[in-house]
Structure prediction request, 197 residues.
Amino acid sequence: MPKIVDHNKRKEQIAEAVWRIIVREGLDSVSVRRVADEMSMSLGSIRHYFNSQDELLSFSMQLVSQRVNERIQALPFTGIVRQDMELVIWQLMPLEEVSMQEAQIWLAFAGRASVSEAIRAISLSTYEEIYSGLRRSFESLIQQGVTIANLDAEYETARLHALVDGLVVHGVTYPERFSKELVKSIVSRHLDTLVIR
Prediction:
């Protein structure tokens, strides 16, 4: 009887092989052949799931975003907007081994977004998703009347998003200088300047 293969699971396993190569050797080392070697699969088997390297990279990038979203959906939200904002932001930061690898992979893809339309489209979609979530949080804080007077939600969303992105870059590049405690403290203190306790 032929072995039944879960095609979605196999695609995820191939994407995880792409991630391992990126973390070890960088995005430029990723090729369909290199991934086939990593998986101990034939080139034809990889091409059965992905028609091109762009398709493989796009799926791999989307899977990073999907995994982060799944973790966010599973968070024990408190219903207190300020606390829930922090819970979500911590999932975007390189604070644990898994999120450090995700951040490394995401930054590798972000560098490629300027030259690949497919990757740029996914990157932009994720950017807008994060931006929209932060914007909704600020709107909720304003509606609850717990922000400083005349808070500009659009401006503060852009500012917080830039802060988060910068901390991700620094956390990946200089982990010895940006401890988990320091990163959390920077975000918390920033929010302290905007939210009335």
User: Anything to note?
Assistant: The two ends are 65 Å apart (CA to CA).
